[in-house]
Amino acid sequence: MASANIHTERLELRPVRDEDIDRILEYRNLPEVTRWLLRTDVDPVSFRAAWRRAAENPDDHSVAVLLDSVVIGTVSLDVLDGMGQPGMPSRTEAQLGYIFDPAYGGKGYATEAVTAMVAYSFDQLGVRRITAGCFADNLPSVRILEKVGMRREQHGIGDSWHAELGWVDGYTYAVLAETWRHGRHHGAGDGDRADTPEALPLP
User: Fold this and answer.
1) Rounded percentage of the chain residues whose pLDDT exceeds 90
2) Cα-based distances in Å from 20 to 27, 88, 91, 121, 180
3) Order of strands across the sheet with 70-80?
4) Which of 54, 125, 145, 179 can pair with 60 through a Cys bridge, CB separation 3.0 to 4.6 Å?
5) Pairwise CA distance, residues 108 & 94, whole Å
6) Which tens digit of pLDDT belongs to each residue from 164-193?
7) Contact between 200 and 132 (Cβ < 8 Å)
């Protein structure tokens, strides 16, 4: 897991600690959050074990997001190989996800944190492409991904099963490093509603 500590204007992003898990579960298991997660119910013991495994994975750069020393969310970032023929450089892509406490929605915290992780991925990890996915009906997540400058690359028609809604559409977003560096991303802190964002969810 990442060892870097990132500070934005209002937030601290650092590796998840064992003592963070109970706090993360407090909001992760709220109905308004699990409504848009692929894994709705999680066992606390298994959840804690998954985070411990992530801490030992050098390709996992997930972080806890803190506001005034309180964990308000997590951003997951997994570095992996892209798709291609033999000879392709390794570890050039990253998958992004995030889950935030809805009590802190509406103030741009999720956009601020995700923007910082995108910048970290390109500037420090050297990846060339970042992807993220979400249910098409998860509008808070759609807004965050578009605010940070990601482009909708796929609209899957009826490709995702939702326990309440049945078969629904899904979106895949992506952004290239050169696009990001050309300044086409949007600024953070736009008052996004980070109440139920989820993309490629955490364990």
Assistant:
1) 67
2) 12, 38, 28, 23, 31
3) 6-7, 12-14, 63-67, 70-80, 93-100, 129-135, 166-176, 151-162
4) 54
5) 23
6) 999 999 999 999 999 988 875 444 444 443
7) yes
